[in-house]
Structures are given as structure tokens and as C-alpha cells.
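Entry 14. Two folds queued back to back today. First construct below, sequence then C-alpha cells.
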Amino acid sequence: MSDLTVEMVQRGRGPSTQEAARRLGVAREIRSARERLTSRTGLERAFDHELLRHYAQYRAGSGIPLGVFAMALAAAATAWVPVAVAGTWALCVFLVITLNSMISRRFLGADPDQVDLVRWRWRFAGGEALQSLVWSAMIGLGATGGWTFALFGLVIAAAVATMLAATVPAAAVAALLPLCAATLCLLTFSSGVDTVMLVAMAAGTQVFFLGLSRRLYASTVGALHSRAEKDAVFGELEQAKANSDEARRRAEEANLAKSRFLATMSHELRTPLNAILGFSEVMKNEVFGAHAAPSYREYSNDIHDSGMHLLNLINEILDLSRIEAGRYELNEEPVLLAGVVEECRHMMALRAKAKNQIVHASVDSSLPRLWADERALRQIVLNLLSNAVKFTPPGGEIWLTVGWTPLGGQYLSVRDSGPGIPEDELGTVMSSFGRGALAIKTAEQGSGLGLPIVKGLVELHGGQFQLRSRPREGTEVIVTLPAARAMDTLPPVTDEEPATAPEPKRTSRRAA
């Protein structure tokens, strides 16, 4: 068995993202090279089939225009040759065009995986050669004096044939050779300088059309390459999205399983812990008599204190698990935030006094009640005050403020003169069991669950949680509850009104 390395731990059981991308690229290159080696044209099979498909589509769609063009040439040729000759030539052109169209449609209807590309390429080349031979018979239409007409007809036929067969170079060459030979044969009708010049220009034009078809072929291949790369990118993006969705689903399932496990274990641990706390409290208070040794009393106190610490930790884990699992139910009722804050301040006064800390409280007495969970509000305030007392050094100060928000809601601010939190550690302290470096060195031990629980409870109430801190300047936590939870004072009940009081009405008015 090989030793476990840091790289193996970092990437887990599978390759890293960069390694997976590299392997995918190598596999794609190997597949492409294998297809090119087995191809006669040096392209991938998919490209060969696509080029033949383009040719077949062009040929299948050009039958009617070519037929009309052949009829026009035959009608014009009747000025030099008998109608029967022109009609026979036009009929031959129609038959060859029909044959090529049928071959093209047959290719388009075949299964791409079962097609023999080499055989079909030769079929298309043979069809082009046959059709060009028929077009070349046009020189017979101008034999009695219309050789110039035949010359330009051959040039037009060469242009059409090379453009239509551009995606199959062998077919383009097969289509052009008979037309060039027929063009050169026109020199037998006249040996004048003008005739030689015209024939030379016509032949050069036909060769130019062949070069242009090669450019069209290269452009089509480039477009196919671009489309293949785009399709590959889209496929990779789809695969990456699918992998991301699957990873997110697994993470959500794992997080839910973790929360359920913690909730179950918390309940299982609290049962024996309650017994430990009960018996240790009996021993600490010497209910059944004094201890024979004074050390036993100290041990009992240590057992009880450790049990209480463990119970608080289990309660925090249970609360956080319920919040993350979405199973924390709020028991909402009219609650006076100022009263809850005052009770919590009184409960933490002894701990602050033990560290010679000064707590400054500023509470707006005009605040109405909130429609909220009293237990959750009390836990929010206690956690924030406990953190402030815990992280503030002896002799420090703590500012506790409760008041209106600009939009008519209520806010709670807890600020201390502690060591503060660096900006790069704000995310750490907001995570479960996360604690900053300065907090670990200067503060008492804690679980690191206080702030995540506070944030979760605030969000359950529809409020906002803000954490502001800078090193050596202290920390401030602001909890804002929405105006929709603030309640107006109920109007007095008179004798003329029903005895039942109306339900509490929520308001979003701006406080003066």
C-alpha cells in the first residue's frame, strides 16, 4: 500500500479539476487522431460525413434550377441546330440531373453509422463526371456557328458544378475535367486569334473556379472544426453542470444527515448527562451528609461544572442542527425586547463584575412589543452578551443599545472593547465551531457556535445580522428585526365595543 500524501488528501478520492480537464483533453486528442488516421481525407469521420451531407443537400436542391437552365440553353440553341437535337440534349441533361438527385436523396436517408463514406464519395464523383459529359455535349449545339454561345455555356456549367461539388474535392475535379476538355475542343471550329484568346480565358476561368472551390472546401472544414469545438465546450459545460448539481445534492444530503445525526446524538447524550448533573448536585450540596474528605466536595463541583458546560454545548449543537435542518419552530407571542435585554444584562452582571467590566446600557423605553419567540430572543441576547464579556479583557467596557430602526423596526447592538477580529477571519468566526486566532489566545474556551446560532435565529425572524470588527478596536454585532414584527398599542376596550379584544396589529410605521 502506498503512503498517503498531502495531494491525495486535498483531492480526495478523485482527481483534481485541472487533472480531470487534462485527461479529458488528452482523450479527445487521441480519439481525433485515431479517426484521422483511419480516414482517406485526413479528417475525422464526422467531418467526412458532414462534407458529403452538404454536397448531397446542394445537389438535391439544385435539380430544378439546373433543369430550367438546360431548357433555356436548349431553346437558345435552336437558332443553330434543329429542335430535335436541342431537345435530345436537354432530355439527357434532365435524366442525369434526376439520377444525381436520387443518389443524393438516398445518401441523405441512409443511417450515418452504416454509410461507407469511400464508396459514396466515388459515387458522387462518378455522377459529377457523367453530368459534366452531358454538359460538354453542348459543343455540338454550337457546331454550326454558335461556338461562342457554347463557350460561355461551358463556363457557366463549370462554375455551377465546381461550386456545388466544393465540399467533395474529388467530385469537383471530376466535374471540371470534361468541361475543360470540351472547352479546348472549341479550337477546332476556329483558329483565329480571337478564338484562341476566348478559349484560353474560358479555360483559365474554369481553373479559377476549381481554386475557388478549394477555398470553399477549406472554409467549410474550418466552420466544421469551429462547430465541433463549440459543441465540445457545450458538452463539457453540461457535464460540469451535471457534476456540480450532483455534488450539491450530495452535499445537501450530507449536511442534512449530519444535522439529523447531531440532533439524535444530542438527545442520546442529554439523558445520561442529566443523571450525572443530578447526582453531582446531590454530592455537591452534601444532601446525605458531609464528605469524609474535603477534596470530594471540590471534585463534585468540578463534575457539576463540567456537566453544565457539556449540557450547554449539546444544547447549542441541537439548536444549530434544528436551524440548519429547517426544523426549528418559533413559538411567537408579544415580547418586549427591552425587558428581555434587561433580564439578560442582569444575568451577565456577575460575570462582568468579576472581570471589572463596565456595561453601558441605552434602551429606548418607547419601544412597543414584538411578535417573536421570547426564548429565541433571550438566547440571541445572552449569546451576544456572553461573547462580549468573554472576549473583552479585564477592565474593559461593553455598550448595549436597543432602539428604533429608520424603517420602523427595532435593533439590538452589542459593542465591546475587546481585541477585535481581523477581516480575513470574519468568515471563520461565522462558521460552525469557528474561532479566530486572537480569540483563541486571549479569550476563554468556547464552542464557536454562538454567532451561527444567533444568525440563524435572527434570519428565522426575518431580521438581519451584521458583524463589524477591526483588530484592537473591538467588535460590534447589530441585530435588526423588521418593522412587520413591531406591534401597536392596543386601543382601550369600552362598554360599547365587544368584550373580545381584537388581534394584535402589526405596523411598519417609522418611529419619531
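Second construct, same run, same settings:
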Amino acid sequence: MQSNPAVEAHAAPDWPAIVAIVLGVTAFSVAQGVTYPLVSLVLAARGVSSTMIGVNAVGFALGLAAATLMLGRLTQRFRANHLIIAGLVGCSLCLAAFAVFSSTLVWFVARFLLGFCASLIFMLSEAWLNVACPDRLRGRVSGFYGASICAGFAAGPLAIPLFGTADGFGFALTAVYLALVAFATATLMYSTRTTPEPTSTRDIFRFFRQAPMLIAMVFAFGFADIAAISAMPVYFVRTGHTEAFAAISVTVLALPTAVAQPFIGYALDRLPRHRVAVGTAAVAALSYLAIPFLDAPALILVAFAMLGAATFSLYTCALTMLGERFRGGMLVAGSAAYALIYAIGSGAGSSLTGAIMEIGGPDAGPLSVGAALAVFTAAFLLARRR
């Protein structure tokens, strides 16, 4: 369903809903930022094999997939804001299970449920954000939303050096934090006046047909984002940089990305949104392509920071354009489609980039991702002209 800019021009934002959404999604990203490294470190300290650690991590991905497929049925039976609160409470209970139990099987089930609950929060929050926000503010609110996600992912792993991996204290503290956020979110919802509409699994797949370029944008984001996080640190080590440099590069990737999103959001509200999307894709492509030709570590980190900010900006653009174009149940369907295609893109980004580096050498990694982003940029420009 198309939006009506004339009607929306003077619409008031639903600020209690926007605050609740940002609180919830930040909590989701903190929980995921804690869980990914902390679970692996604890299992490794217990002597669990790398293979079993990998199998355990699959539980989270399976939970994400299950939530996507069940989203239509759930939204038809329950209100979306109630599902978000249930997701926050579920995440808190899963983290508490990590703190209380030591069974690998229990942890697998907990990671499945954590992925399920976190996915509900993520998908419904995106849809609700677009419902609660008028189009004149959509870019700026989406930019702040994206910055909150980045900040949460960056803050989550800090629980490890602060509280260690023993005794489950990091899990327990994060569980308490999520429970408090769930209470705050429930309190704010008494003042909200909007809520996402129900959707269906059929709508999710219909969205793929109706918005192929938005789907392509999210795929490109997932592909390039995970390539930067998982493959580029390996690239740096293989090209003669230290492990400390590779670790610093991840921090350099995350912080400017969070800072840049509100500025991208402002640009989305002031400039033609497809031009902002094309510009961010072009900057990401050029940054990837430039890295193999840079020698100075400072210049490499600058290019890497630009790469991270531009890559995540693709998602901020896609989220803003989703709310600009669609209404009703298609908003929730679009958010679910985004989650699904991001999972596919990130899986392709980590596996293909690693394989390309093995076959063609380290430089083939960033060059191939840069070339893929350049092709996407050209395709997006061609599609707009048509």
C-alpha cells in the first residue's frame, strides 16, 4: 500500500512508541552483542569442541528463521506491542538460563528461544517505528534507531572484560537489564497511540515481488557488513598487520558507524532518498576497493571506518524507504523479509568472501566485495531510471 505524503506532512509522531522501540531494540542488540562472544568463550573454557560450539550457535539462527515463518500467525493472534514485551521477557529468561544451567543441550534450547524472541523484537520494532513516525521525520528517526543498534552491539561485549566469563554474572546482569527494559517498555505503551497491523506469511513473500530493490539493498548490506566483521580482520592479519591491529579495526568499524547514522537520517529527510542510497553504496564500494592499495595503517583504518558507516547506511536507507512506500500489514511483512534476506546475505558474505580469499589470495576478498557493491550501485541506478 502506498503512502500519502500530503496527509502525513502534519502528522504528529508517537513519541512514547518511538522511545519504547529504541529502548527495546537497544536491549536486543546488547543481548546479542553479549551472547555471541560470551557463550563461545564459556563453552571453550569448559572444553567443548569447536564443532559443538558451532552447532550450538546454529540454535540462534534457527530461532530467527522460526520467528520469521511464524510472524504472520503470531501477529494475527496477539498485538504487536505485546509481542515485543514478550520478546524482551523471553530474552531475559534465556539469559538467566545461561547463568543458572551448564548443560550444553539447555544452552542450545536457550539460544534457539533467544533467537526467536530477539527476532520478534527486531522485526516488529522496525514496523512499529515506521507506523509511529511521520514521513517528514522518518529518516532522522531511522538514523537514531540505527545508531542505537550499533551502540548496543558495541556495548554488549564490554560485559566480558568487566565481569568475566565465570559464574554467569555477565549473563545474569544482562538478564536483569532486559527485564527492566521490558518493564519500562510496558509502562510507555500505556501512552502510545499506534501499533503495527497483523500480517501473513503470504505477505512476506509478496513483499519480495513488490520491492526487489529494497530487498537487494538489505542483501547488499548483510553481505558487505558481515564480510567486514568476519573476513576483513583475517585479511589484515594475512597481509602483515598485527592481531592487535585487526582487533582495533573492528572498534574503528563500529564507532563511526553509530555516529554516522543520524547524519544519514538527516540527509534522507532533506535529499531524494534514492540518491542517498546510491551514494552510500558507492562509498562502500570505493572503500572496499581502495583498501588493498593503501599502505599506511592510519589510511587503512580511515577507509575501513568509511566502509562500515556507508555499509550500515544502506540499511538505514532501506528502513526509511520501507516506511515511505508501505503501510498496514505490509510494513510488518517488509520487516520480516528484511530479516530473512539479511540472514541470507550475511551467510553469503562470510562464506563467499572467505572462500574467495582462499582461492585468489587476501586482496581478492575486499576487491570482490567492492566489485559486488559497485554492480549493485549500477543496478540501482539503472532501476531508478527505468
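Quick look at the second one. Residues 1-7 have pLDDT under 50 and may be disordered. Residues 329-360 form the longest helix (32 residues).
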